[in-house]
Amino acid sequence: MKTRFLFPHKYRLVGWVLTIPSFILMLLVLHADFRLSFLEYGRKGKFQFDGESFLFNIHRHNFTDEVGSLLLITGLLMIAFSREKEEDERTVKLRLESLLWAVYVNSAWMMFSIIFFYDTLFANIMTYNICTPLILFIARFNFVMYKERRTLKNAGL
Fold this sequence. Notes:
The chain has 157 residues and is mostly helical. The chain is built from 5 helices and 2 strands, in the order H-E-E-H-H-H-H.
């Protein structure tokens, strides 16, 4: 079975190269208020819409968190949806089951969070939840693939 929407296998390495530094960057941004000075934007002038967070209403902003988030999501997508060296029906089935499992676990966690967490803590959980489904999928899929390879190796195949 040929899967049409997967990246080539070599994109997995590119994904890791993007994910690891951007993950560290995002931890620094979220917990140490780290900013890259060359991503600072300041606009001169007095034209302004009502409200500070209105779309395109940027007077002064640092885009470190936006760039880090985009790189992190891009890297995770490349890791998660790159072909295996040998992609067959079993791999496709394990991929689909892992994706379904990740969505179920993430949804259960979100329901739990909605019920038990409020205010800033809930906002922090939602911030991390941007990447949680991809991370859960990658972890489960690689674990299931590891178990599958180990089973085949022990069976002598």
